[in-house]
Amino acid sequence: LLSVESVSKSYPENPVLESVSLGMDSRDRIGVIGRNGSGKSTLLRLIAGVEEVDSGQIIRSSGIRVSALVQDPTFDQGVSVHDVLGDDRRAIATADRLGVTSGPVDVMSGGQKKRLALAVALSTECDLLILDEPTNHLDVETIDWLEDHLVNRSSGLLLVTHDRYLLDRVATRIVEVHEKDLYSHDGTYEDYLTERGRRDALEVASEHRRKQLLRTELEWLRRSPKARTTKAQYRVDRAKELAAAPGRRPPRVLEVDLPSRRIGSKVVDLDNVSKRFGDRTVLCDVTLKLSPDARVGMVGPIGAGKTTLLRLLDGRLEPDAGSVEMGTTIATGWYGQDPRSINPGTRVIDAVREVAEHTKLESGVKVSAGQLLERFMFDRGIQSAAVGELSGGERRRLELLLVLMEAPNFLILDEPTNDLDLDTLAILEEYLDGWAGALVVATHDRYFLNRVCDVVMSIEPTGTLRHHPGGWTEYWEMHKTSKSSASKPSGSKKRSPSQSSTPSKLTVTYNDKKEFKSLAAKIRQLESEKARLSAQLECVGTDYSEATRLAEALGDVTDELESAETRWLELAERIEAAG
Ligand SMILES: Nc1ncnc2c1ncn2[C@@H]1O[C@H](COP(=O)(O)OP(=O)(O)OP(=O)(O)O)[C@@H](O)[C@H]1O
Ligand SMILES: [Mg+2]
Question: What is the pLDDT of residue 311?
Fold first, then answer.
């Protein structure tokens, strides 16, 4: 498909890639991993051809078509969703599946823009698909759909993601960007981790041997001063050599160790809280009492009201009905989806100084802003860089530092895993294990949910909160069963590509074509039904039973539309593949 040959790339005073090479076949699905700021996005941009290499070359097979999703997509000013998607049915259906339907792009949130760009990337015909953090603003169900989609595509794939389950399921090869070089490992992410574990163990062992040897030599030196003169000169030399050898630079890790504060028994009590926006009821009769050691995960589809609930918990938002009472000892730390507004020209070090010049760590040690940044893996060089030059993940890591510096005892995390690299995530998860405060997190990261949360709660279409004491797995099982039992017997099943009852992917029967045609009509009809119900729901006012009925009907129609669209896309792909 393509080959990258001795490519180098640097930004002013910042070499990112040095003479790297990589070959890619048409069926390769490569997962690109590496620390935040290591150069993953840079590599993807070079391969996509949106940025030029400094030296070396990238050879693409003739005529290959590339479709790419960048990490932070931007659109021309003043365009609408329709301008972006055009009349292409597949693009429209994909966008709809991702929860983007219409309207001006300028007013859309970062998440909506990303989903719109993802819809375009997925529906553009190509031989190589490049995706930089596609799951950032999706919900669990859509990620599941994306997984299926990627596994069933026939194009090559180059993927950067922090979603460990997605990576493990989709990638057939892992490429690690590390210290300006690339390391390729055949196999899944799990295979890669096993191999890395073995490699680390070897390195630790040889480092241990080196230290051992050094110690013996030193002891020997001290014990026999006379011997240093003549015949044992070689031992002296060797001891010096060993001492001078830099040793393997230990892999840098994030050191969190930030200050904490005591927490009383009351965190936040929500009592029969409801919240409406316009006439849409987002939350309805929510009652929730958080304990000081709570580890709660919030899940729900895009737009279900997760962030709204978090804002109510934090006191940023007032409820329309019911009460929110916060304990007196509570200091909230808010780590949200949209970055706090820091002037992009501000230097990294100044952003930290604005919060505090010095910080007292949990261990009692007092550190300066610069030292604190170093513990968070921002070297001296990058500390004087402007915030606007940071990579996506570096920016998120800085944000996390600013939040934790203030010693919160109640952490509210809204999609905390977005853009963070896998090593940093592992450290954050471990830190949260031992963290002595309450935690509420809204996330689509299935791994993080399983790892960190004891309780999972979902926001239902009616706006109520449902507890899942068995955690995410229980929620997911329940969600899937309720979906499949709700779908009409004549309706197509969502996971059909992997089911034996469906014909092989490459044959298209007469019935397929017939179904394809009738689906288009059905989708149109469902779309207008959905629009009608949404409009009704918006004007229903305070009549809760009517609102509930409408919301349920809307949920059903949306589900049906979703499976019709999924089926339509599948058939479209098959018909196309068959020519
Ligand atoms: N336009 C730019 N100007 C200056 N420096 C840049 C620019 N783009 C990227 N960099 C720097 O180049 C390095 C690599 O950035 P890149 O975005 O490729 O990293 P990444 O691996 O994708 O990180 P992340 O995981 O955070 O997305 C970073 O140190 C970043 O600060
Ligand atoms: Mg990146």
Answer: 92
At 558 the pLDDT is 81
Is residue 1 within 8 A of residue 25, CB to CB? The reply is yes
pLDDT at 176: 93
Residue among 10, 391, 395, 400 whose CB has most ligand 1 atoms within 8 A, to mutate: 391
Separation between Cα atoms, residue 429 and residue 452, nearest integer Å? 7
DSSP string, 453-520: -SEEEEE-TTS-EEEETTHHHHHHHHHHHHHHHHS-TTSPPTTGGG-TTSPPTT---HHHHHHHHHHH
Given this model, what pLDDT does residue 32 score? 96
pLDDT of residue 484: 62
Give the Cα separation of 243 and 468 in Å (integer).
56
CA of 177, closest atom in ligand 1: 21
Q: Name the residue with the closest Cα to ligand 1, atom 1.
A: 389
Task: State in Å: Cα 195 to ligand 2 middle.
Answer: 24
* Contact indicator for 137, 112 with CB cutoff of 8 Å: yes
Residue 491: φ, ψ to 5°: -65, 155
Q: What is the pLDDT of residue 488?
A: 40
Ligand at shortest distance from the CA of 132: 2
**pLDDT recorded at residue 296:** 94
Contacts of 459 (CB under 8 A, 6+ apart): 283, 298, 299, 300, 304, 305, 306, 309, 465, 466
CA gap 310, 334 in Å, rounded: 9
In the structure, which protein residues have their CB atom closer than 6 angstroms to any atom of ligand 1? 11, 14, 16, 34, 36-42, 71, 389-394, 419, 421
Query: What are phi and psi for residue 329, nearest 5 degrees?
Result: -85, 0
> Any idea how long the chain is?
579
Task: Calculate how far, in angstroms, residue 71's C-alpha sits from the geometric centre of ligand 2.
Answer: 6
Q: What's the token pair of residue 179?
A: 């210290």
Sheet harboring 66-69: ordered strands across?
A: 66-69, 128-132, 156-160, 29-34, 173-178, 181-186
Nearest residue to 51 (alpha-carbon basis) of 60, 59, 42: 42
Q: How far apart are CA 31 and CA 158, in angstroms?
A: 6
Cβ neighbour number for residue 225 with a 10 Å cutoff: 8
| Residue ranges in the chain modelled with pLDDT below 50 | 228, 230-231, 247-250, 487-505
Q: Is 547 exposed, middle or buried, given 0-12, 13-18 or 19+ CB atoms closer than 10 A?
A: buried
Residues 6 or more apart in contact with residue 24 via CB below 8 angstroms: 1, 2, 3, 30, 128, 156, 158
Specify the DSSP element, H or E, that contains 177. strand 173-178
* pLDDT given at position 247: 47
